[in-house]
Specification:
Helix content: 40-55%
Number of helices: 13
Largest sheet: 2 strands, antiparallel
Oligomer: single chain
Shape: elongated
Number of strands: 6
Low-confidence stretches: none
Radius of gyration: 27 Å
Mean pLDDT: 90
Number of domains: 4
Distance between the termini: 107 Å
């Protein structure tokens, strides 16, 4: 009798050990990639995707830490063959089992919104409020928080104050969860911007004599000044050429941004008085770069800032063709002629 009790005890102990190992392993496999990263990534699951395809898509977007773990979770919880096509808002803070269940249930619980290139924080806040994604006041409150600096190290060199994140909320079409908070939306935008803060781009910036945060300022100016893509590299060259000889940049976009911060209405044509508007962003009265970015630049403007064309241009003005293109020149007399040509063409059109 005692012998049978001992055997039963050993069997129970063995089963408990096996169960402990199993649940311990399951807990490890089901760990979120980063419980502190609550930003959302847009994951598109196509019709006919296998579990392996889905695991690869999730891994590529950085929301799971292991494709193998996700496939094991899928098998254990019997999600294989149940996954449904759709576009999902997935966060690295979510456990793999939750991600798998969401896709298996077909819970496409996402809101879609687009932030165009060249939008400022205030314009982004207005767009989100108008599209009923989040309230404007809530978004502006989230943007003014310094809590993002820990996860996004590039912000350590950004400007201080309420405009700390200006220029770093990447313009893109986003898919976010229906109940996404302003903070989660901001984190998603910062996560996209972080993709440009690479060693390779750091080296490019260094060769130009600047850091990547200064490149973002230059890119934002290019974004607001360029009417067509073909001019971005030339506008970049004008900016670098002027900075090199310590010549004021004298860019209207910097004044327009400064005035917007003061709550003044947007003016397409600036007066002489406007160019004297007192602000650390005004490049007419302050040499060098403005205090920070004047908008969120897109990929093409960032690339232009990192890879400027090599020219001797110091001036540019909108072309008399009125097609959004600019005319470039290296001396003031040609600039004045180009400016007069544009003015006459616009007057004639009006």
């Amino acid at each position: 009798m005692k012998k049978s009790i001992k055997i039963a005890t050993k069997i129970i102990l063995f089963i408990l050990i096996i169960l402990a190992i199993f649940f311990g392993s399951l807990s490890y496999l089901n760990k979120p990639k980063d419980k502190n990263d609550e930003s959302f990534k847009t994951i598109s699951i196509e019709k006919g995707y296998s579990t392996d395809d889905i695991a690869s898509a999730l891994y590529k977007e950085g929301v799971i830490s292991s494709k193998k773990s996700f496939k094991i979770i899928s098998r254990i919880y019997r999600f294989d063959g149940k996954y449904q096509a759709g576009t999902y808002a997935i966060s690295p803070a979510m456990r793999p089992r939750i991600i798998a269940k969401k896709i298996a249930d077909g819970k496409v619980e996402a809101k879609i919104f687009t932030i165009p290139e060249g939008f400022s924080i205030l314009q982004i806040a207005d767009r989100l409020d108008k599209n009923k994604i989040v309230r404007k006041d809530d978004f502006l409150k989230a943007v003014r928080s310094k809590s993002y600096d820990k996860n996004f190290k590039f912000l350590n060199n950004a400007q201080s104050g309420d405009n700390h994140l200006e220029g770093y909320l990447y313009p893109l079409t986003y898919h976010v969860a229906v109940n996404a908070t302003s903070q989660q939306i901001v984190e998603s935008m910062l996560s996209e911007t972080s993709k440009f803060f690479t060693k390779e781009n750091e080296e490019k910036a260094k060769k130009l004599g600047y850091n990547l945060n200064e490149i973002m300022i230059i890119a934002s100016l290019i974004e607001r000044e360029a009417g067509i893509d073909e001019d971005r590299g030339k506008i970049a060259s004008v900016i670098y050429n002027r900075l090199k000889i310590d010549m004021p940049l004298q860019l209207c976009s910097s004044v327009q941004y400064a005035q917007s911060l003061a709550g003044l209405p947007h003016k397409e044509d600036l007066s002489i008085e406007d160019t004297q508007f007192d602000s650390p962003y005004n490049t007419y009265i302050h040499k060098g770069l403005p205090a920070g970015p004047v908008c969120s630049p897109g990929k093409k403007s960032i690339e232009a800032a990192l890879n400027p064309e090599k020219t001797d241009y110091l001036y540019f003005v909108l072309s008399g063709k009125l097609d959004g293109s600019s005319e470039f020149s290296k001396d003031i007399s040609d600039f004045e002629k180009n400016k007069e040509s544009y003015t006459k063409a616009r007057e004639k059109k009006n």
